[in-house]
Amino acid sequence: MKKFQVAIIGGGVIGSSIARELSRYDVRVVVFESGSDVASQASKANSGVIHSGINSPPSSLKARLCVEGNRMFQSLAEELGVPVKWVGKFVVARNEDELAELEHLKRVGESNGVPRLEILDEALVKKKEKNISCRGALWVPTAGITSPYQLTIALAENAAENDVKFLLETKVIGLKKQGQRFFINTTKGEFLADVIVNTAGVFCRDIVAMLEEPDFNVYPCRGEYLVLDKAY
Fold first, then answer.
1. How many domains does the chain have?
2. Which sequence positions are flagged as catalytic?
3. Rounded to two decimals, what is the model's pTM?
4. 115 and 32 in one domain?
5. What angle do CA 51, 101, 133 make, to 5 degrees?
6. pLDDT, tens only, 6-53
7. Long-range pairs for 166-169 at CB < 8 Å and ≥24 separation?
8. Does some domain include residue 184?
9. CA count, 13 A, side-chain hemisphere, 104
10. Domain harbouring 21, CATH code
11. Rounded to the nearest 5 degrees, what angle is found at the Cα of 155, between the Cα atoms of 151 and 161?
């Protein structure tokens, strides 16, 4: 039975990122991924937005990590050779009530440490994007976009170069804790680990249920995108 110090369940962007970070240390790490490659589930098809932190509850851990992560992303992208564009975003108000909501969002963002937020009137908005019709908009210059699957692959490749073991097409089908260790049953055999990191995305509840009764539910959401020709 192969033994590891850390077993990461799920090879999406979070699992691959944790694997890369752990690869900086003298730790034996394995990543179990049920798909044929990393980024084979939600990480391959999410929006790729680098959020600014304007929507996170003030003083929350989510707000702090979102703003810090946003500031760190440029250097991370350069290290990994991953594309990133700081395109910014508009939060658009169509009426007076929504203009008041923009003021609230701006205050929340500023309290979270999001820099350079501006509320622009319709004329200034149209100078940046002529196709927007609105009463005004909150301009968020620190919002960006990246390629989610390229990011995940780059994180995983860097981790693998530093001796993290990636086991693809390997689904975890059972877990048991004995003493201070975990026995992991997979479709490719049994493994032993001191620590388990559950990054199984929408399947994370199933992983928890192998050890104890989960105290949370997962509600997956699926979106759709329209891809338009630039000529229009």
1. 2
2. 51
3. 0.90
4. no
5. 80
6. 999 999 999 999 999 999 999 999 999 999 999 999 998 888 999 999
7. 166/11, 166/19, 166/30, 166/31, 166/33, 166/38, 167/30, 167/31, 167/32, 167/33, 168/11, 168/33, 168/35, 168/36, 168/37, 168/38, 169/33, 169/34, 169/35, 169/36
8. yes
9. 9
10. 3.50.50.60
11. 145
